[in-house]
Design a protein that fits this description.
Helix content is about 45%, strand content about 25%. It has four helices and five strands. Strands 1-2-5-4-3 form a five-stranded mixed sheet, sandwiched between helices. It has about 120 residues and is of the alpha+beta class. It holds the Pfam family RsfS. Keywords: Cytoplasm, Repressor, Translation regulation. Its main location: cytoplasm.
Length: about 120
């Protein structure tokens, strides 16, 4: 399964489990660590734990490898590492605090400005 199909499987699983504000960001041109970042909000730490668990089950059922999971015990921010796809499952306050989408949007904007020869920094 390629990284795009894997990210689509993850997004579908999160949507089925009522994950909120699902974002899937292609970061393949920005980093060599992963191809896609999927960010989702859970309604509570229990919901975040369930979302992460169902992503693991869905990916394993599809015959794909899971590299690891971090943060499951606290469950305010659970990271699921699938290699080419990294999933961030966060409660709303944590997602607002770290604002990962803006971090990657800044990277994309800075890259475009650097290519045009007109950086704003």
């Amino acid at each position: 399964m390629n990284s795009k199909n894997l990210s689509q499987l993850v997004v579908a699983t999160l949507d089925d489990m009522k994950g909120q504000s699902i974002s899937c960001i292609n970061v393949s041109k920005l980093t060599s660590i992963t191809d896609y970042m999927v960010i989702v909000t859970g309604t509570s730490s229990t919901h975040c734990k369930a979302l992460a668990d169902f992503v693991l089950k869905s990916v394993k059922d599809a015959g794909q490898k899971v590299n690891g999971m971090e943060g499951r015990l606290q469950s305010e921010w659970v990271l699921v590492d699938l290699g080419d796809v990294v999933v961030h499952v966060m409660v709303a306050p944590m997602r607002a605090l770290y604002n990962l989408e803006e971090l990657w949007n800044f990277s994309t904007s800075a890259e475009k400005e650097a290519e045009s020869g007109n950086p704003e920094f």
